[in-house]
Amino acid sequence: MITLSTPAGPFTMTGNGVAVTAARFHSDDLPTGDVPQSAIDAVKSYLDGDIAALDDVPVLQHGSPYLSHCWEILRTLREPVTYTTFAALTGKGPQAARAAAQGCARNTIALFVPCHRVLRTDGSLGGYRWGLPVKQWLLRHETEFLLDR
To answer: What is the pLDDT of residues 84-130, one digit of tens each?
Structure first.
């Protein structure tokens, strides 16, 4: 387990030596585990502006086949989408926005599985397990560096 200082607050990760198994914006109790050096390096690169640095870091979390699919789709998002769009991307159709929202709500690997990129249909932030100030910071940070490209 390791905690890194970020502008959004402490970011704590744990892993199994190969993949990140949990990550959150708090320094509270995560199980002890070996975080791959690639994950530490990727977070530092992300904070320096390389938004895609997190893409290739292996992650591992357990859930139903649909939740696992949601988490895979989240890792492909490059910009914010609405819950309705996210539901459509999962193949369930826009009417399944609540089901898709569970993919965000049950995500335990912040940043690497970027559920912060999913917004309400009206463009408002919605919720975020690690707090709306963290979600706001992440979206501003990503927008700043994506606009530079």
So the answer is: 999 999 998 888 888 989 999 999 999 999 999 999 989 899 889 99
Residue spans per domain, the chain:
2-54, 65-147
Q: Model's pTM, two decimal places?
A: 0.92
CA dist 141 and 7 (Å) reads 10
Catalytic residue among 8, 13, 115, 118: 115
Inter-CA distances, 64 with 40, 47, 94, 99, 107, Å: 28, 31, 20, 12, 12
Q: Based on the residue annotation, tell me whether 104 is a catalytic residue of this protein.
A: no
The residues facing 11 across adjacent strands are 4
- Alpha helices for the chain (secondary structure H): 37-47, 65-74, 83-89, 97-105, 132-147
Residue with tokens 């560096």: 145
CATH class of 65-147: mainly alpha
Spatial separation of the C-alpha atoms in residues 46 and 137, rounded to whole Å: 13
